[in-house]
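Suppose a classmate hands you a notebook page containing two proteins, each written out with its sequence and a corresponding row of structure tokens. How would you begin to make sense of it? This section walks through that situation. The first entry is reproduced here exactly as it would appear on such a page.
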Amino acid sequence: MELQRALAMGSLNFSMATVAHMIRLHDRNQSGSIDFDEFSSLHNFLTNMRASFQHFDKDRSGQLDLNEIHQAITHAGFQLDQHAFYATCKAFDPDRTGTLGEPEFIALTVFLQSARGIFDAFDTGRTNSHQPESGKGGCHRSGAHTNQDVFASKVVRNYDL
């Protein structure tokens, strides 16, 4: 894939699945590809996540430990409960070292951004809450209101990563 090769030239090596996820996330006109403006949005996202990674990689090891990951994703605007945080980290830590390199960290944030986008699709009134209609199923039990971060936590828990 062309985008995957372009990112690799910038020392960002992602799986085809992660690149496809990035395209889906930034393909605002749903054309199946990204135009210049959509690429600019993706570039800004990647630049911000790289800066966050580098800022929180205090020992310059090229890896973030769990504490650094938590600080970095919180700084990026994501808040997960403890269970969802550990489940997400485990899902994006293929060698099970308890650390993430830059590509894994960015893949994790792409996933979290996607979960937030799913929530936003249901939060049509932009109230930062969602209550499923009675009898129509929903994302959570009892129709209780939930915010984006709680929703993302539930997606992480129920998503088979």
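The notebook's second entry, a different protein, reads as follows.
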Amino acid sequence: RRVHGSVSAEQIAQNKDLKQLYEGLVMTETQLMQTFSKHGLCKIEPKKGDKFDPNFHEALFQAPLESGATDNTIAIVEKVGFRLHERPLRPALVGVFGKQ
């Protein structure tokens, strides 16, 4: 996931070697995730505003409520988690909106 945000589209378009490296990393990630999924290993990818679930999420910090946000919902995702057949292997690391 880090490769997606670390290089701008302009840099990739200008540098042929960087483009090939980037495409190779994306293809590798895609195939790896397909293989994981086939065997029951899936990502836990919560979105901003999802309800905090302590079974699948680990709260790293509490953020002040924003307008439109509700208490005990996800503010930011620091790291995705993984589960194997509905059993969490690593919880998603998140920040949670809360009353201050």
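A careful reader of the second entry would note: Helices lie at 2-6, 9-14, 16-38.
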